[in-house]
C-alpha cells in the first residue's frame, strides 16, 4: 500500500499543469518521525498534523500557498533519519524540515539541517541540548524541554515535606538529563533534601519487581519517576502490589499524558504529581474546539501526541507567515518571536534560544470510573520555567 | 536480610517467563537446528492473544488458567503452521537460510500485530487475586510472583519427564543427539519437526501470556525478549532444557542483584556473564553437543582470478565515478550508502564464506570504526583521510584481539559470542557518555561536500573490496578455506587454523570498520544504533541474500537489500511486512542466494 | 636406523585410560601395521603421534627429538604425513587446489594475501597428482570424486611434504576389494619412492599380512604383541584378544 501522502503528492504533480496552473505551488514541509518504532505516540501525532494542515489549507494556506506535508518513517534509527532528510530536501524539494520523537533523532536532524542550511522545527524531542549546548541558528523546538518539565515538577516537589528522595529513570539521555535537572533544581530550593538511591533500568527492559524492592530498601520519603510506556505499567503494578507508593510522595514526568496514563487503567496510582494533558477537562475555547474537530475526524479523543502534531504545523504556518518568504535568513528571523495558537493557548518561539513557550499541565493523578485522570491541574506556561537569559546565553555557546 | 530474600525471590520469578521462552527456543534448535529469530514474535503473540482471550473471560483463577492454556495452544498452532508452510521447505537449504526466513517472519508479525491490535500498549486489567501479596519477613511480595516461581520448576520437570519417559521424548533426544542416525532409523522427521515447533511455540506463547499480569502487551517486546532468550539458550547449552533453566535463573538473579550494585550497568551485565561462561565452558553450562559451523562447503569457490570479472568491476567503478555528473543528489547519496554497505557485507563474507565463521555481531566493528573516525575528527582534529584511516586500524586491532579469544569456538557459539561482544560495545557506546555522547551520539562529522566525498567512498570501497577479493583468492584465502573444510586435514598439512581465523577476523573487522568510518562521514554523525542488533542482521541478510558461495554475492546482496529497504521505507507504510514477505519470497525462490542463482544458470 | 621411537605413551579421557604405556619403534623406510580390535586405542595413538592430541605421559622421539605435545604443524614440518580413516580433504576445492594448499603450507607461503593462489605450485601439484594417478581429475571438484579417488587425493596430501613417516589410519576402509588392493599398493609404492616409513592401522588382515614388515597389536590400550606375520598369527595373546579364545 502506498502511503497516502506520496500518492496525493504524485497525483497533484501529474495533474498540476492542466488544472491548477494559476495556483502557486504548495509550501512543502518534510516531516520525519519514528512511526513504526513508537506507534502509540506517533499515530495520534500524525492525526494531529493532518488536522492542522487541512485546517490551514481550508483557510487558504500561508502566503497564499497551500501547505503540503511529506512524511517519512525513520524506524527509530537516526542514521535513517539523515538519509530520509536528504531525500526530502533533494528529491522532494521541501522548504522546511520538521518532526522527531527521540532526542537523538532530533539532534541528528538539527545538525543535518544546519549543515544543509535548512530550517528544522522539532516537535517532541525534549533534549535540552537541542536548543542549548548543541543549539544552532536553524533549529526551533516546540515542546517544553526536560529542564522545563523538571522545573515545573520541582515547584510542586519543593512544597512536599519529603527529605529522603530516590529516583528511577530509563538509562538514556532523556532519563539522565531529567534526573540531573530535577536534583539540581530541587536541591537548590531545598538544601535539606537527601538523595538516597537511584535506579536506571534499561529502556523497555525494566525488572520492575527488583527495581521496586531496591527503591523501597532505601527507605525514601519520596520518589521521582521518569519511566514511561510499558516500563511504567510494569513498575506501577509491582509498586502497587508491594506497597512501594504507600505513604510516599511520587513525582512523575509525563505520566499525566493520555498515551502513558491510559494503560495504567484502574491501577493508576492516586496522588502522583505529574505533567500531562487532562484532555476534555480543559474547558478553554481553543482546547474544546480542537477536541471537537479531532473527534469529528478521527472518532477518538486526542492524546498529547495529537496536540504536538497539531501545534507543530500551526507554529510552522505562523513562522512562515511572519517571515513572509522561504529563504533561510527570513525564516529564522520570522520564526524568532513568532506567536502561534495551540490547544493550550497562545505560545511563541523565543528569539533568545528558539525554545517554544508552549507549556504543559501539572496536576495530580486520580481514579475516576476505573480510569486514570488528572485532577487539581493547572497550566504551566513554558515561558515561566526557563533559566534567566544570562544563563541561557552561557548554555548556548554555538548559536547566533 | 529480608531485602536479600525478597530480591532473590524476585529474581526467581522474573526468570520464569524467560525460561519458558528459552526452553521453547532450545528444543526447536535441538531437533531442527533452526535458529528461530521469530521466537520473540511468538512470545509477543502469546501476550497479545492472551490479552484478547483473558479480557473476555471472567476474572477468577480457574478462567485465568484456562485462558493461559488456550493462548499457549493457539500460539502452538501458529508455530505448527509456520513450520509446515515455510520452514519445512527450507530444511534442505543452507542452515542460515532458515534464520533469514524466520527474520522475515518476525518483520511480518510486527506489522500484522500493529494492524490487528493497534498501536497502543494493551494492559490486562488485573483481577483482585492477581494483586494479592504475601508478607515475607515484613516485606510484601506479590502472590502472582510466587505462582510464577512454582510454574518454572513445574514446566521444567514436565519437559524433562516428557523427554526422558515418553516415546516422543526418546525421538526428540535421538534427533537432538544425532539427526542422521535418527533419519537412518526411519524416524518421521517431518512430523517430529512440526510437533517440536508447535511445542516450542507453545512454550513461547505461554511465556508471553504469563507476563500479562505484570506488563502490557506491546509492540517492542519481540525484539527485547529474543536477544535475552538467545543468551539463555547459549549460556545453558544449546538443546539443553535443564541448561536453559539454570541460565535463566542465573540471569534473573543477576538482574535482581545487579541493579542494586551496578544500577548503571544493567545493559552490559548479562552479556559480560555470557562471554565469561562461553570462554570457560565453550558449549554452555550443560551443553554437551559440540556444534560445528553449518557445513555449506559443497560448492566450489573459484580461486582463479577471473579477468572478465576484474574488467567488469573496473568498468562498473568507472561508470560509477561519472554518476555525480548526472545523478540527482539524493540518488548519489543512496549510491554512496550502497557502496558502504557492499564493503560491510564483503568483509562479513570473508569471515562467513571462506572463514566459515558466523557473526551475529558484525555491527560491533562497523560501530567501532564509526566511533574511531568521529572521535579522531572531534578530539584529535584529524583531517578526514586520517580519521578514515583510524577506523580500519582501530577495528582491525580490536578484532584481532577479540578473535584471539574466540577462534577456538565454532558455529552458533561463536556467533553468540560475537553477539555478546557487539552488545557490550553497544552498551559502552550508550553508557560511556563523556566519550561517545551516549544516545545523542557524536554530531557534526561532515565531509567537505557530497560529490568529493562520493569519490572518496567509491575509491576506498572499490580498493578495499578488490583487496578482499584478492585475499579470498590468495594462498592465505585457500588456507583459510582449507581450515573451514576440514580442520584435522588442515592441521595435518601444517596449517594453523586458529591463526588463520584470527587474521580473517581482523581483516573482516577492518573492512567493517572502514565502512563504519565512511558511514560516519556520510551521515555526519555516529550513534549507538550503529552497533545495534539490527545492523548486524542487515549484514547477515546482505551476505545470505547475495549468496555465501560466491565472492560477488555480498555485493549483489548489499545492492538488493539496501535498495529494497530504502524503497520500501519511503513508499510503503507497512514496510516491515513488505520487507519480510520479500525476504521470505527470496529465500524460497533463491536458496543459493541471488548471485548463486545467477552463477548456476 | 630408528626413525620413530615411542616410549610409555599414555592417554586417558575422563579417567578412562585409552592408551596405557605403549612403547615401540619404527625404523626408517619400514612398513609397520598397528592392528587391534575396535576401541583398542589405535586412532588415539595416531592422534598423539601427529600432535592433534596431547599425551598425558610418555615420549615420542622422531630422529631423537622428543615431539610429544608439539603442535601438529611443527610435527608435520619434521616430516610426518597423515591419512585419516574417513578421507579428510577440502570439499569445496578442486583436486588441484587441495594439493596446492598443502604445497603452499610446505613452502611457507600461507601468509601471502595478494598474489593469486592459482599461480602457486601448479606444476608441482600436478606432479604429485600424477604420482597418485589423479592428474586427469585435477580440475574437478573434490565433492564429485569417487571414494577411492578421495583416498588417493588424501595420500597425495599426506606425501606433499616429502615425509619420512606416514601415519595412515585404515587406508582401505570403506572400499571394494579390488580398489582396496590398488590403494594399498599405491601407498606402498609412494613410501618406497619417497623412502618413507609407514605406520598404518588396518582391519583387513590380508592386507596387513601381505604388506607389513612388522605388526604391532594393541588391545585395551596396551601393546600386546609385536613381530612379523608368522609370529603374530601364532601369538596366543593376539588370538585371545581377537577371538576370545
Structural class of chain B: mainly alpha
Rg measurement of chain B, Å: 25 Å
Helical stretch tally of chain C: 9
Average residue pLDDT of chain C: 86
* CATH-level-4 superfamily name of chain C: P-loop containing nucleotide triphosphate hydrolases
Give, in order, the helices and strands of chain C. Answer: EEEHEEHEHHHEHEHEEHH
CATH architecture of chain C: 3-Layer(aba) Sandwich
General form of chain C: globular
Low confidence ranges of chain B: 291-298
Fraction of residues of chain B in helices?
Answer: over 70%
Which residues of chain C form runs of ≥5 with pLDDT under 50? Answer: none
Helix amount of chain C: 25-40%
Number of helices of chain B: 25
Integer tally of domains of chain B: 2
Tell me, what is the CATH class of chain C?
Alpha Beta
Strand count of chain B? 4
Architecture overview:
The complex is a heterotrimer of chains A (400), B (601) and C (245). Chain A is of the alpha/beta class. Chain A has 2 domains: 4-145 and 283-358, Rossmann fold (3-Layer(aba) Sandwich); 147-281 and 360-385, Rossmann fold. Helices cover 42% and strands 20% of the residues of chain A. Chain A has 13 helices and 14 strands. Chain A has helices at 4-19, 39-58, 78-90, 103-115, 146-157, 173-189, 208-217, 230-242, 258-261, 285-298, 304-323, 328-335, 389-395; strands spanning 27-33, 67-73, 96-99, 119-122, 139-141, 164-168, 194-199, 222-225, 249-256, 273-276, 339-342, 345-348, 360-368, 371-380. In chain A, the strands form 3 sheets. In chain A, strands 7-6-8-9-10-13-14 form a 7-stranded mixed sheet, sandwiched between helices. Chain A has a 5-stranded parallel sheet with strand order 2-1-3-4-5, sandwiched between helices. In chain A, helix 5 packs parallel to helix 6 (173-189) and helix 11 crosses helix 12. Mean pLDDT of chain A is 89; it is low at 1-20. Chain B has 601 residues and is an all-alpha fold. Chain B has 2 domains: 15-218, no CATH class; 307-531, no CATH class. Helix content of chain B is 73%, strand content 2%. Chain B is built from 25 helices and 4 strands. Chain B has helices spanning 2-32, 39-54, 61-85, 95-117, 143-165, 167-177, 179-184, 189-210, 221-236, 241-261, 266-280, 307-322, 329-352, 363-378, 384-406, 411-431, 433-436, 450-473, 475-485, 487-492, 497-523, 533-546, 553-571, 575-589, 594-600, and strands spanning 133-136, 139-142, 442-443, 525-526. The longest helix of chain B has 31 residues, at 2-32. The model of chain B is unreliable at 291-298 (pLDDT under 50). Chain C has 245 residues and is of the alpha/beta class. In chain C, the strands form 2 sheets. In chain C, strands 6-7-8-3-9-10 form a 6-stranded mixed sheet, sandwiched between helices. In chain C, strands 2-1-4-5 form a 4-stranded antiparallel sheet, covered by helices on one side. The model of chain C has no long low-confidence stretch (mean pLDDT 86). In chain C, helix 3 (95-106) crosses helix 4 and helix 5 (147-158) runs parallel beside helix 6. Chain C has one domain (2-243): P-loop containing nucleotide triphosphate hydrolases (Rossmann fold). Chains in contact: A-B, B-C.
Amino acid at each position: 500500500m502506498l502511503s497516502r501522502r506520496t500518492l496525493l503528492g504524485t497525483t497533484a504533480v501529474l495533474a498540476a499543469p492542466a488544472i491548477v496552473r494559476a495556483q502557486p505551488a504548495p509550501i512543502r514541509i518534510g516531516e520525519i518521525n519514528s512511526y513504526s518504532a513508537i506507534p502509540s505516540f506517533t499515530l495520534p501525532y500524525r492525526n494531529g498534523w493532518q488536522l492542522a494542515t487541512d485546517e490551514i489549507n481550508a483557510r487558504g494556506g500561508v502566503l497564499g500557498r497551500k501547505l503540503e506535508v511529506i512524511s517519512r518513517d525513520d524506524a527509530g534509527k537516526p542514521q535513517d533519519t539523515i538519509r530520509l532528510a536528504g531525500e526530502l530536501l533533494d528529491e522532494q524539494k521541501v522548504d522546511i524540515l520538521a518532526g522527531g520523537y527521540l532526542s537523538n533523532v532530533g539532534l541528528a536532524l538539527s545538525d543535518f539541517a544546519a549543515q544543509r542550511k535548512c530550517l528544522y522545527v522539532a516537535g517532541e524531542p525534549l533534549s535540552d541540548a537541542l536548543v542549548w549546548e548543541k543549539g544552532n541558528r536553524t533549529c526551533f523546538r516546540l515542546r517544553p524541554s526536560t529542564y522545563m518539565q523538571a522545573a515545573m515538577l520541582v515547584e510542586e516537589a519543593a512544597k512536599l515535606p519529603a527529605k529522603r528522595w530516590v529516583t528511577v529513570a530509563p538509562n538514556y539521555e532523556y532519563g539522565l538529563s531529567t534526573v540531573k535537572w530535577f536534583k539540581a533544581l530541587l536541591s537548590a530550593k531545598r538544601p535539606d533534601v537527601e538523595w538516597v538511591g537511584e535506579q536506571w533500568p534499561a529502556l523497555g527492559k525494566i525488572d520492575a519487581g527488583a527495581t521496586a524492592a531496591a527503591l523501597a530498601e532505601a527507605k525514601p520519603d519520596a520518589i521521582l519517576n521518569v519511566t514511561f510506556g510499558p516500563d511504567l505499567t510494569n513498575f506501577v503494578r509491582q509498586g502497587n502490589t508491594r506497597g512501594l507508593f504507600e505513604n510516599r510522595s511520587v513525582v512523575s514526568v509525563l505520566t499525566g499524558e493520555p498515551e502513558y496514563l491510559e494503560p495504567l487503567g484502574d491501577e493508576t496510582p492516586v496522588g502522583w504529581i505529574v505533567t500531562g494533558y487532562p484532555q476534555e477537562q480543559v474547558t478553554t475555547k481553543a482546547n474544546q474546539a480542537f477536541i471537537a474537530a479531532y473527534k469529528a475526524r478521527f472518532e477518538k479523543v486526542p492524546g498529547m501526541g495529537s496536540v504536538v502534531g497539531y501545534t507543530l504545523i500551526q507554529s510552522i504556518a505562523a513562522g512562515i507567515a511572519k517571515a513572509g518568504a522561504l529563504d533561510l535568513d527570513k525564516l529564522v528571523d520570522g520564526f524568532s518571536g513568532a506567536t502561534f495558537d495551540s490547544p493550550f493557548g497562545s505560545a511563541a518561539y523565543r528569539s533568545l534560544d528558539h525554545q517554544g513557550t508552549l507549556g504543559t499541565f501539572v496536576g495530580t493523578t486520580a481514579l475516576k470510573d476505573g480510569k486514570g485522570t488528572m485532577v487539581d491541574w493547572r497550566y504551566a506556561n513554558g515561558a515561566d520555567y526557563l533559566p534567566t537569559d544570562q544563563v541561557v546565553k552561557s548554555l548556548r555557546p554555538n548559536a547566533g | 536480610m529480608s531485602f536479600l530474600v525478597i530480591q532473590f525471590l524476585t529474581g526467581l520469578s522474573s526468570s520464569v517467563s524467560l525460561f519458558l521462552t528459552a526452553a521453547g527456543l532450545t528444543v526447536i534448535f535441538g531437533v531442527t537446528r533452526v535458529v528461530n529469530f521469530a521466537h520473540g514474535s511468538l512470545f509477543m503473540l502469546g501476550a497479545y492473544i492472551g490479552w484478547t482471550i483473558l479480557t473476555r473471560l471472567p476474572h477468577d483463577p480457574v478462567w485465568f488458567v484456562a485462558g493461559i492454556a488456550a493462548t499457549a495452544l493457539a500460539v502452538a498452532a501458529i508455530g505448527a503452521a509456520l513450520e509446515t508452510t515455510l520452514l519445512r521447505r527450507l530444511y534442505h537449504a543452507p542452515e542460515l537460510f532458515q534464520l533469514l526466513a524466520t527474520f522475515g517472519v518476525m518483520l511480518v508479525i510486527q506489522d500484522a500485530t500493529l494492524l490487528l491490535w493497534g498501536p497502543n500498549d494493551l494492559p490486562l486489567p488485573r483481577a483482585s487475586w492477581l494483586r494479592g501479596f504475601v508478607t515475607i519477613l515484613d516485606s510484601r511480595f506479590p502472590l502472582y510472583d510466587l505462582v510464577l516461581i512454582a510454574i518454572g520448576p513445574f514446566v521444567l520437570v514436565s519437559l524433562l519427564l516428557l523427554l526422558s519417559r515418553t516415546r516422543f521424548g526418546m525421538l526428540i533426544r535421538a534427533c537432538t543427539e544425532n539427526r542422521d542416525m535418527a533419519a537412518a532409523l526411519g524416524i518421521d522427521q517431518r512430523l517430529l519437526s512440526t510437533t517440536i515447533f508447535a511445542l516450542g511455540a507453545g512454550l513461547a506463547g505461554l511465556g508471553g501470556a504469563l507476563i500479562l499480569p505484570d506488563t502490557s502487551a506491546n509492540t517492542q517486546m519481540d525484539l527485547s525478549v529474543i536477544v535475552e532468550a538467545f543468551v539463555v539458550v547459549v549460556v545453558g547449552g544449546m538443546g539443553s532444557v535443564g541448561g536453559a533453566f539454570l541460565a535463566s535463573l542465573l540471569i534473573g538473579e543477576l538482574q535482581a542483584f545487579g541493579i542494586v550494585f551496578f544500577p548503571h550497568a544493567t545493559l552490559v551485565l548479562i552479556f559480560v556473564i555470557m562471554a565469561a561462561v562461553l570462554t570457560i565452558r565453550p558449549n554452555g553450562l550443560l551443553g554437551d553437543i559440540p556444534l560445528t559451523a553449518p557445513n555449506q562447503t559443497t560448492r566450489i569457490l573459484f580461486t582463479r582470478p577471473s579477468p572478465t570479472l576484474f574488467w567488469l568491476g573496473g568498468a562498473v567503478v568507472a561508470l560509477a565515478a561519472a554518476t555525480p555528473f548526472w545523478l540527482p543528489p539524493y540518488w548519489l547519496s543512496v549510491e554512496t550508502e550502497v557502496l558502504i554497505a557492499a564493503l560491510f557485507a564483503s568483509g562479513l563474507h570473508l569471515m562467513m564464506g571462506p572463514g566459515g565463521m558466523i557473526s551475529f555481531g558484525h555491527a560491533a566493528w562497523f560501530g567501532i570504526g564509526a566511533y574511531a573516525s568521529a572521535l579522531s575528527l572531534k578530539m584529535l582534529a584529524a583531517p578526514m583521510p586520517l580519521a578514515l584511516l583510524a577506523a580500519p586500524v582501530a577495528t582491525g586491532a580490536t578484532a584481532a584481539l577479540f578473535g584471539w579469544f574466540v577462534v577456538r569456538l565454532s558455529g552458533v557459539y561463536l556467533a553468540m559470542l560475537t553477539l555478546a561482544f557487539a552488545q557490550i560495545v553497544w552498551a559502552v557506546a550508550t553508557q560511556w557518555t563523556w566519550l561517545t555522547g551516549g544516545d545523542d551520539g557524536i554530531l557534526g562529522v561532515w565531509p567537505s561536500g557530497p560529490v568529493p566525498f562520493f569519490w572518496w567512498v567509491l575509491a576506498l570501497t572499490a580498493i578495499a573490496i578488490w583487496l578482499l577479493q584478492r585475499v579470498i583468492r590468495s594462498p592465505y584465502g585457500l588456507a583459510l578455506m582449507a581450515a573451514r573444510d576440514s580442520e584435522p586435514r588442515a592441521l595435518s598439512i601444517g596449517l594453523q587454523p586458529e591463526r588463520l581465523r584470527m587474521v580473517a577476523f581482523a581483516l573482516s573487522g577492518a573492512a567493517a570498520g572502514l565502512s563504519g568510518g565512511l558511514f560516519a562521514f556520510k551521515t555526519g554523525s555516529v550513534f549507538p544504533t550503529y552497533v545495534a542488533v539490527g545492523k548486524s542482521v542487515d549484514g547477515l541478510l546482505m551476505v545470505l541474500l547475495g549468496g555465501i558461495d560466491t565472492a560477488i554475492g555480498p555485493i549483489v546482496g548489499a545492492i538488493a537489500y539496501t535498495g529494497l529497504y530504502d524503497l520500501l521505507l519511503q513508499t510503503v507504510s507497512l514496510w516491515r511486512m513488505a520487507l519480510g514477505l520479500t525476504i521470505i519470497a527470496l529465500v524460497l525462490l533463491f536458496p543459493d542466494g541471488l548471485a548463486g542463482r545467477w552463477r548456476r544458470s | 636406523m630408528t626413525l620413530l621411537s615411542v616410549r610409555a605413551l599414555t592417554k586417558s579421557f575422563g579417567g578412562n585410560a585409552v592408551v596405557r604405556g605403549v612403547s615401540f619403534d619404527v625404523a626408517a623406510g619400514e612398513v609397520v601395521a598397528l592392528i587391534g580390535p575396535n576401541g583398542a586405542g589405535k586412532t588415539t595413538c595416531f592422534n598423539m603421534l601427529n600432535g592433534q592430541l596431547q599425551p598425558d605421559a610418555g615420549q615420542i622421539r622422531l630422529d631423537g627429538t622428543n615431539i610429544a605435545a608439539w603442535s601438529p604443524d611443527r610435527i608435520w614440518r619434521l616430516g610426518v604425513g597423515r591419512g585419516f580413516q574417513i578421507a579428510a580433504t577440502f570439499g569445496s576445492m578442486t583436486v588441484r587446489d587441495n594439493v596446492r594448499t598443502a604445497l603452499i603450507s610446505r613452502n611457507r607461503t600461507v601468509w601471502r594475501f595478494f598474489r593469486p593462489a592459482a599461480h602457486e605450485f601448479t606444476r608441482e601439484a600436478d606432479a604429485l597428482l600424477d604420482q597418485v594417478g589423479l592428474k586427469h581429475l585435477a580440475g574437478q571438484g573434490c565433492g564429485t570424486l569417487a571414494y577411492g579417488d578421495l583416498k588417493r587425493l588424501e595420500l597425495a596430501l599426506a606425501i606433499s611434504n616429502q615425509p619420512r613417516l606416514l601415519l595412515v589410519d585404515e587406508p582401505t576402509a570403506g572400499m571394494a576389494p579390488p580398489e582396496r588392493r590398488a590403494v594399498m599398493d599405491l601407498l606402498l609404492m609412494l613410501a618406497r619412492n619417497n623412502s618413507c616409513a609407514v605406520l598404518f592401522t588396518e582391519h583387513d588382515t590380508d592386507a596387513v599380512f601381505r604388506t607389513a614388515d612388522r605388526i604391532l597389536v594393541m588391545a585395551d590400550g596396551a601393546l600386546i604383541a609385536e613381530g612379523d606375520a608368522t609370529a603374530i598369527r601364532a601369538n596366543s595373546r593376539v588370538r585371545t584378544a581377537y577371538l576370545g579364545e
